Amino acid sequence: MSKPAGTAYPSLEPGYQGIEGIPKPLPVHPPTPLYGFPPQQYQQPSVGPAQLSPSLSALSLQSQTPEALRVVNLLQERNILPPGPVPAPTPCLPQDLQKLNCSPEVFCSTLTSIPQTQALLNKAKLPLGLLLHPFKDLSVSPQLPVVMSSSIVRCRSCRTYINPFVSFLDQRRWKCNLCYRVNDVPEDFMYNPVSRSYGEPHKRPEIQNATIEFIAPSEYMLRPPQPAVYLFVLDVSHNAVETGYLDVVCQSLLESLNSLPGDTRTKIGFITFDSMIHFYNLQEGLSQPQMLIVSDIEEIFLPTPDSLLVNLNECKELVRDLLKSLPQMFTKTMETHSALGPALQASFKLMSPTGGRVSVFQTQLPSLGVGALNSREDPNQRASAKDVQHLSPATDFYKKLALDCSGQQVAVDLFLLSGQYCDLATLGCVSRYSAGSIYFYPSYHSQHNPAQTERFQKDLKRYLTRKIGFEAVMRIRCTKGLSIHTFHGNFFVRSTDLLSLPNINPDAGFAVQMSIEENLVDMQVVSFQAALLYTSSKGERRIRVHTMCLPVVNSMSDIFAGADVQAITGLLASMAVDRSVTASLSDARDAMTNAAIDSLISYRTSVLTIQQPGLLAPACLRLFPLYILALLKQKAFRTGTSTRLDDRVFAMCQLKYQPLMYLMLMIHPSLYRLDNLTDEGSLNINDCTIPQPGMLQLSVEKLNSEGAFLMDTGSVSMYLWVGRNCNPTFLKQVLGVQNYATLPLNMNRLPELDTAESTRTRAFISWLREQRPFYPLLHIVRDESPLKASFMQNMIEDRTESALSYYEFLLHVQQQVSK
């Protein structure tokens, strides 16, 4: 039975009383703040007040205690999870400004109220940063207005794009909201193409929408826009052929050839490799594809440079022939070596003239030629070592190659399908610095692991057909006084604030850290603008601009009231990945724990007026210690649990690259009870009823053997755990089995039964799946299933041999806070 809300904790949880060997409290290290920059002294420049609508001055932030600042005693309030997703806080802005603000799903700040000074920010002990999802899928209009204009209006001084938060001094002059320069309104901006009226520039779409896309004129092009160019680089060693992945890739490509983003100029090419590199001549006029083998991998050259990348429309039949015959060509191979480095050098040579996307499929450690690697993993050290070795690359070959690729507008995406150690820490650099993506399918085998194959197929389909932008750059600007100093994500920083993104895709997230360099004393609001310039797959140069406006505050209570706990957690996760690699894993773990402790000390000393016993947090940060504990137990950072090095490194890559909405499910999965779904409170989407069960805490005490519980862990897996005494109706009407004993051990999908219960359950799971780009597999888990351990590992609130329970962690935090 779950306890009623508000049940207090006993002094020790009942399960732990009288147990020998309760873990000792965590050792207290001297604080290693993740965001400790020495406070710098700056002369205060005189800045004129940001001329804003007068309604802001009338807006008192603290007329009454807002819900965000309601005091929560974490040691007593047990059920702190909200029933559904955690909403992002709404910035405290006048209504007319807030309704124009950017969606937090695209652009958000860790603090929705910006401190006036760096000293105030340091005192709050909360990290300041922005999280972006700049190329998120947005259906055209109303969410994404597209403007075609002969001139794009920008500030003459700082080059900010005109946006809803500028002020018009009169019809002919506007004041930039980032540098405060007064600019002239160009004549053609006086005409509003939407209303077809003249003389109302403030009603144009650029002033009415915080997210907008411009079709760029020729001055935004350094060269004619490049065509879509796709190169597929396939491992065909014995190991690769044995996994059966080639059939899946070739079949998926055959099915998606007509849906690849592009136009009549789209080009495609193929390279396969083992100990040698094989090119494919697909020139129009050949009766069949021609294989050309280069065996000298020390001096890579292109055998026929002009016919290896061909126009897809003109040579589609030859491409089809190649895809149909490729899987059979290597079935008898005895080649065990992998010359990945030389294959990548060949790809770079082939793609340099145009730019484009290289998709690499690799199934083992590269063993020949440049970039060859040796295994660095010691399986005996997986659980015991306090600090994990080999999180940084073994060679800089892959990073250097990525930077060369980035300079020629080439991105490399890496698909790693492997049953053994592949050194993702080294190979991943080729994608990280070229703005590519990394996909990882451990223990991949078409026959032995059909569930993994299904996920690979679904991911590939999305990958091949999703929107793509080429030869992109992104710049983030912010109001004078604020500065950006660290970027997180996959890219290369070309100049201080320009990110080079040879490819941009709708599933890529970015984060930046910020500091306050000059006091923001005379400002009521500050603004942030991200501008992404890219070439669409149809060859149009486009600029997508997102602008966000936030209030400036000078009281600690206002700073805390505007804290976005999920954005803070996401930024800290990225910072901790960097810390793990540059310092050590234990250092990163200490820094995350200290982030929770320090912010609660600051809240206690600077915001709370009445001191009372317990571990006190403002309601807006009540989930912070839980999220930090979840991070400490996440594959990227956990210790004491056997974790393969590649699994750990992949989790770190995802933490740095996933947009916040997908990241949070990885950090803190969602648990729902499914055997008693009803239509009460359900959503109605396209005439389909979607039940909305409440979220449960991640603790075994929320499970019982009579129920069925769904654990949603994000982009890779969902687990449906079925209790031994599960409701017979659910077994029959949803799972299609007569009783628990007949439930198969490795079931991966729900049968489509013509029952209300089946329809409800499938509708809910489909709805969850549709909210993310990639296809999480459904594993139906019995008590005897080997996957039960994976399900239970996500029970973050429970104690394990090597990690504290949530309650014990709270006691540790409290001990530090009340010192």
Structure explained in plain terms:
The protein has 819 residues and is an alpha+beta fold. It is 26% helix and 21% strand. The strands form 8 sheets. Strands 3, 5, 11, 20, 22, 23, 25 and 26 form an 8-stranded mixed sheet that branches. Strands 12, 13, 14, 15, 16, 17, 18 and 19 form an 8-stranded mixed sheet that branches. A 4-stranded antiparallel sheet has the order 2-4-24-21, covered by helices on one side. A hairpin with a 2-residue loop joins strand 6 and strand 7. The radius of gyration is 28 Å and the shape is globular. It starts with 70 loop residues before the first strand and ends with a helix. Mean pLDDT is 90; it is low at 1-63.
- The residue-averaged pLDDT reads 90
Largest sheet entry: 8 strands, mixed
Radius of gyration: 28 Å
What is the chains' assembly state?
Answer: single chain
User: How many runs of DSSP E, i.e. beta strands?
Assistant: 33
Membrane topology: Peripheral membrane protein
Domain Sec23/Sec24 beta-sandwich: 469-553
Protein name: SEC24 homolog A, COPII coat complex component
Subcellular location: Cytoplasm, Cytosol; Cytoplasmic vesicle, COPII-coated vesicle membrane; Endoplasmic reticulum membrane
Question: Can you tag this structure with a few keywords?
Answer:
disordered N terminus; Sec24-like_trunk_dom; 26% helix; alpha+beta; 33 strands; 8-stranded mixed β-sheet; 819 residues; 21 helices; globular
